[in-house]
Structures are given as C-alpha cells and as structure tokens.
Specification:
Helix content of chain A: over 70%
Shape of chain A: extended
Number of domains of chain A: 1
Radius of gyration of chain A: 26 Å
Structural class of chain B: mainly alpha
Low-confidence stretches of chain B: none
Oligomer: heterodimer
CATH superfamily of chain B: MetI-like
Order of helices and strands of chain A: HHHHHHHHHH
Shape of chain B: flat
Structural class of chain A: mainly alpha
CATH topology of chain B: MetI-like fold
Number of domains of chain B: 1
CATH topology of chain A: MetI-like fold
Low-confidence stretches of chain A: none
CATH architecture of chain A: Orthogonal Bundle
Strand content of chain A: under 5%
CATH class of chain A: Mainly Alpha
Largest interface: A-B, 60 and 59 residues
Chain lengths: ~270, ~270
C-alpha cells in the first residue's frame, strides 16, 4: 500500500530543474550585491535636492502657464506641426519600403535592400538620430521632422511588410488570374486587405511621434522638449510643471483619440 | 418582373464615396502644407543646403572608430546595464501592486482606488524616461541613481498596463475552483491568479528590460550616468571617432539584449 503524501507543494511553473532554480537565484543575488554596490549616492546632494524636489512638486501643483506662454505655445506648435508632417512623410516613404520588404511580393534584391533600411531605422534610437540630424541640418524643428520621419519608416515599414506577408493569397491570386498587372494586383488584391491596418498603424505612429517630439527637443531638435529643457535650466519649476501638464494632456488626448479612431475605422 | 439596370462598367466605389474620399485627401494635403509652412518658418535653408557636405564631413571624421577607447567604456557599460536592470526591478516592485489595484477583478474598490491606479499608469506612460531623468537629475543630482529611478518610474506604466490586462484575462473557473476549496482571499491570489499570470509577467518584464537597455544607453545625455554620459562628453569635444565607438557598443548591447529577451520570451510563453 502506498502512503499518500500528507502535504502538497506547488510544482514549479517555469524552471522545473532544481539545480537551475538554485543557480539562477544565487546568480541574481550575486548580481544584485555587485550592482547595488556600484550605485554611488551622494546623500548630501540628495538632501539639497529634496528641497528642490519640493519646489518642483509645488510648481506642478501650481503650474505657471502665463509668464512663459509665448515660449510654450511656440514649442507646442513646433511639436504638433513636426508630428503631423513627419507622420505624413514617414508613412508616404514607408509604403514603398514596406511593399519592397514583403517577401511574397518583391524580388529578393529589393527585399534585402528594404529590410536593411528598416533594420537601420529600428536599431538607432530617435535621440541618437536627432543628434546627427541636428549636427547636419542645424538646430530647430526641421532636424526633428527628419528624425521622426526616419523613425516612422522603420516602424510602419516593418509592420506593413509583415501584414502584406500575412495576407490571404487567394485574393491576390484571383486578381492575377484575371490578367491583372503587378500594379493591379497591388491595387485590387493587396491594398484592400492591408489598408485598415495601415490607417490604424499611421494613427498609432502619430501618437508615438508626438511623444517622441517632446523628447528630441532636449538635444536641440525643436519642439516642446526644448522649451522644457530651457525651463529646467532656468530653475523655473512652475513653468516646467505647466509644460509637463500640457505634454501629459496632449498625450492622453492623442492616445484616446487614436484608439477611438482605430476602433471606429476597423 | 422588374429589371435592375446593371452598370455597364464596374466601379470600385460609389460617386459619393469617391467625392468624400477626394475631399478627405484634399483636407489632409492642405493640413500638411499648412503645418509644413508653420514648421519651416524659422528654418535656415542655407544650413539645410549645406547638409550633404556636413554629413560627408562628419562621416569622414567618424571613421575609423577609436578602438583604444573601448576599455574606458566598460565601466559606463556596466552602469548602463545596472541602470536598466535595477530600474526594471524598481518598476516591477511598484507596478505589481498598481496592476492589482487597476484590474477590474482584483481591485479592492472600483470607485476610488481603480481610477487612481489607472491615472498612475497613464501619467507614467505619457512621460518619456528621458524627461523623467531630466527632472530627477535636478532633484537627486547627476548619477546613476537618477537614471534608475527614471527608468523605474517609466516602467511602472508599461508593466502595470500589460499586467493588469493579463489579470483581467485570467480564467474565472480556476479561481472559482480554488475558492471552492475554502481558500482565503490571499490563497486565491496565490494559487488561483498568480500561476495564471506568471508567464505573462516574466514575458512583460523581460520585454521592458530590453526596452530599458536601449533607453538607459542615452539617459546620460541629461546627466544620469552610463554610456550616454560618455556620448555627451565626446559630442561636446567633437571627438567623432569616440562617438562611433560608443554607438557601436550601444548597438551591440541592444542587439544582444534583444536576442536574450526574445529567447526568454519564447521559452516562457
């Protein structure tokens, strides 16, 4: 007769081998000790900073929209126009690149060229691209526009290419069998299948581009980020609070607006 | 028998739809042109015309990368990795309770705590980690602590949002089964909910860690330590070969972390 166990232990979910579990736990512990050891904290500086942090919280609770309004509105207009133009140009450029990067629809050499453009655009962070474009094109929103357009190519191009690779081949085949040319297959067989998602992705990218436009200003590419950076440099925390509230508000409007529109369109 | 008049030619869209579409495109183009004009008001076109020459010049100076700079980058690289990892850890610690408060099926009060938790998630998500770092460097002083906190605060929203969606998607029957054995609420949480969301949790965490590696590489631009600090220093003295070297290190780190993250997610999910 087998003795039933009187206690039950929950079986491990992810790592089933006991040795691996211990090894990983030990490794994590060693890493944490090493990592936390290298964090140098200057407590004197932190305590000085706390007073500043308090002033920042005050500035956030009582934001000052008025005294720097011309700067803020200029930054905001730059950000918004930059967002729209870069999304339009970026999407317009990423459509041919996305089509070229679809394995089922482009010849191999085009496929590799388009895929490498997408890979480069995705590997580099917006801020790093912005640094280069500012160095080349000078300060201001034009550099920001180029940065965001370039980043849009990687995002939309990749997702569009994957979408084209996932289409229902039968519909493209049907157009092809009526004697449709390459252009006609694209226009009547593929475009209707990917269009709803392309519009959805473009709206999503519009939302992302606004968020990014608030950041690349820090390295000189114009927009509301530049205004925020200036406000922080001048220790004007009430203006900075106002700018942050504007950014949060715009991002929330963009996010809910774009998700509403996407639901409406699909 | 009524005769339906078939059109002689097949048309993709009706007349009204075509007209609406055409006006939609017109509106978009008009908006684009107007935005373009507002945006380029202050652009100095001579700089833009000069850009190819500048690009060639920078490209010329960037090559070849200064390999001898690599040993100096090892400590900042370690800082960057720590910033991303400890920041993710901080983010997870803050995000898990927030997610449980925000999920419709686990929140203790849907009227009061759920909106607060949702607001925390939205606010954290709408501010980029570079902006968090800008604020925190002013408060905590330059250094990797500010970077860790910035990464952590940004991660709360991301992890919180995905995790609370995972909690809301849990299978009710399993929770019901645990509850039917007479389990207390904390036991239901431990045996009914946690096992269901654990794979998603690890997936989300590793995914965010991967994103955080990318972001922590540039946080130094505003003074939060790591590779970005070296990048900023090199850019300020126009040491382009060093910039190339730093970018190569960042690129290698990013590719490696993406590979690790993809492997772990494939294993877990």
């Amino acid at each position: 007769m087998t003795a039933y166990p009187t206690t039950w232990r929950r079986p491990p979910q992810i790592l089933t081998h006991r040795g691996w579990r211990y090894a990983i736990q030990l490794g994590v512990l060693v890493y944490l000790i090493l990592a936390i050891g290298t964090v140098e904290v200057n407590w004197a500086r932190v305590s000085v900073g706390m007073e500043r942090g308090l002033r920042f919280v005050q500035g956030f609770l009582q934001p000052d929209f008025i005294s720097r309004w011309t700067d803020i509105s200029r930054g905001l207009v730059e950000s918004l126009t930059m967002t729209l133009t870069s999304t339009v140009v970026g999407v317009a450029l990423s459509v041919p690149i996305g089509i070229g990067a679809a394995r089922n629809f482009a010849p191999a050499w085009v496929y590799y060229i388009c895929r490498s453009i997408i890979a480069v655009s995705r590997a580099l962070q917006e801020v790093i691209i912005a640094i280069f474009f500012v160095a080349m094109f000078g300060f201001g929103p034009f550099a920001g526009f180029l940065t965001l357009s370039f980043a849009t190519i990687g995002f939309i191009g990749k997702l569009l290419a994957e979408d084209i690779e996932d289409i229902d081949e039968a519909q493209a085949e049907a157009i092809r069998s009526t004697g449709g040319s390459w252009m006609q297959v694209l226009n009547y067989g593929i475009q209707p299948q990917v269009m709803p998602r392309l519009i959805g992705l473009s709206l999503y990218r519009l939302d992302i581009n606004f968020r990014e436009s608030a950041v690349i200003g820090i390295v000189g590419a114009g927009g509301i980020g530049a205004t925020l950076n200036t406000a922080m440099d001048r220790y004007e925390y009430d203006s900075a609070g106002a700018i942050l509230l504007i950014i949060i508000g715009c991002v929330m409007v963009a996010e809910y607006g774009s998700s509403y529109l996407r639901k409406f369109l699909q | 028998m009524t005769e339906t008049a078939f059109p002689a030619r097949w048309e993709h869209r009706s007349r009204g739809a075509r007209l609406a579409l055409w006006f939609g495109w017109l509106g978009l183009v008009a908006l684009f042109v107007w935005c373009w004009q507002v945006m380029t008001e202050t652009t100095i076109w001579t700089f833009v015309a000069d850009a190819p020459r500048q690009a060639a010049d920078i490209g010329d100076r960037m090559f070849p990368p200064r390999l001898s700079y690599l040993p100096e980058l090892l400590v900042p690289l370690w800082d960057t990795l720590n910033m991303a990892t400890l920041g993710t850890l901080l983010g997870v610690i803050l995000a898990v309770p927030t997610a449980f408060l925000a999920a419709r099926n686990t929140t203790p009060s849907a009227l009061l705590l759920r909106p607060v938790a949702l607001f925390v998630i939205v606010a954290s998500r709408s501010i980029n980690s570079l902006i968090w770092a800008l604020l925190l460097v002013a408060i905590l002083g330059p250094g990797i602590l500010a970077g860790i906190v910035a990464i952590g605060l940004r991660s709360v929203g991301f992890i919180g949002k995905l995790l609370y969606e995972a909690i809301e998607e849990t299978d009710v029957r399993q929770i019901e089964a645990v509850r039917a054995t007479g389990a207390s609420p904390s036991q239901v949480l431990d045996y009914g909910i946690v096992p269901q969301i654990l794979p998603a949790f690890w997936g989300i965490t590793v995914f965010r860690w991967d994103i955080n590696i990318r972001e922590s590489a540039i946080l130094g631009l505003v003074g939060a330590g790591g590779l970005g600090l070296k990048l900023n220093a090199s850019l300020n003295v126009l040491a382009w070969p060093q910039v190339t070297m730093i970018l190569l290190v960042i690129l290698a780190t990013v590719v490696l972390s993406e590979w690790v993250s993809a492997r772990v997610r494939a294993a877990v999910i």
